[in-house]
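Title: Prediction job returns without error message
Component: structure pipeline
Severity: low
Priority: P3
Assignee: unassigned

Description:
Job completed but the reporter wants confirmation the result is attached to the right record. Sequence as submitted:
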Amino acid sequence: MAYEGSQQRTCGAAIADARVAVTEYDEAVSWLELAVKGAMDPIAAEVWAFEETFQYVLLVKHRWRGWVPPGGTVEPGETPREAAVREFREETGLKADLLELPAAVTVRSYRSDWTPTLGLSYVAVVDRAAPIVGEPHQPAAWMPLAQDWGGFFPEDGPRIRNYARQLGSRRAGSAT
């Protein structure tokens, strides 16, 4: 493979998590397997944080992407899971205990002049009463899942809502 050292750890973890993600969009696994053979652009990681009733999602207001899940670029040598936890803490002040399987893997372009980026979406269930300490330029807030929050990627809302319904149903079924 064309990557070495810390990039091998990052890309290896991204491939492993992409293969076990609950949902795959945009033929992301095939794209990633080809991308790691050449120059690898940044990988992104985010956290879909729900409260215990799965009626709310924790989002941050990005300056040009609108309301989005907390997340960002995976740093060299960092796994996507580690990046998701770090970005979540930086953007909300909260600790994220991520569920075992990533919720989704996608390929998307954040700007028309950028090459596509692999994105891994992880999930955490967080206490809604915990104090949120968002970044000054990027406030964080709980959004009702029933509400349209107008993020940059219109497909995110339905994907996150669908996953929350599935996870809420599985958790309710295991409680009985």
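Comment from assignee: result matches the submitted record. The beta strands are 23-24, 43-50, 56-62, 66-68, 71-73, 104-108, 117-125, 140-144.
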